Amino acid sequence: RCTKQVSIRNIGPGYRRRAECTECFEKFNLAVEGADVLGQSVGQWRQVAREEGERLNARRQLQDARRHERELGIKVGQPLPDNGACKHYQKSYRWFRFPCCGRAFPCDMCHDEQMDHVHEWAS
């Protein structure tokens, strides 16, 4: 018989699952009929859960902010603004992606006008 120990998260009374050992691949049934809280009190567990929830919310907000930064400023399948030309270079239709913010602009001057930082060219 296998003696491998594993940690299982998010279980509670009434939990039933058929699983397989990751060490010996023996199949087993896991059923939790009841649970006793040992050590910390229920109030302490609530505090831990609240802190974990706040940490997850902060992480989601950071990920959303990063995702917003990565937006290009243009949409796929839509024509470029002014057919890709800008007021600085009317005959140029190519756009540049700037590594400082990951966004695309028709020229460096357009980037500097619209963003709150100075442009940086790729090396």
Question: Could you walk me through the main structural features you see in this protein, from its secondary elements to its overall organization?
Answer:
With 123 residues, the protein is an alpha+beta fold. It folds into two domains: 16-69, no CATH class; 74-114, no CATH class. It has two helices and four strands. It has helices at residues 42-70, 108-114; strands at residues 16-20, 27-31, 96-97, 104-105. The strands form two sheets. Strands 1-2 form a two-stranded antiparallel sheet. A two-stranded antiparallel ribbon has the order 3-4. The longest helix has 29 residues, at 42-70. It is elongated. The termini are far apart. The mean pLDDT is 79.
The total of beta strands comes to: 4
The number of helices is: 2
Low-pLDDT segments, ≥5 res: none
Largest sheet geometry:
2 strands, antiparallel
- Structural class by secondary-structure content: alpha+beta
Strand content: 5-15%
Averaging pLDDT over every residue, what do you get?
A: 79
Number of domains: 2
Span between termini: 59 Å
Radius of gyration: 27 Å
Query: Given the C-alpha coordinates, what overall shape results?
Result: elongated
Residues in helix, %: 25-40%
Descriptive terms for the model:
alpha+beta, 2 helices, elongated, two-stranded antiparallel ribbon, two-stranded antiparallel sheet, 123 residues
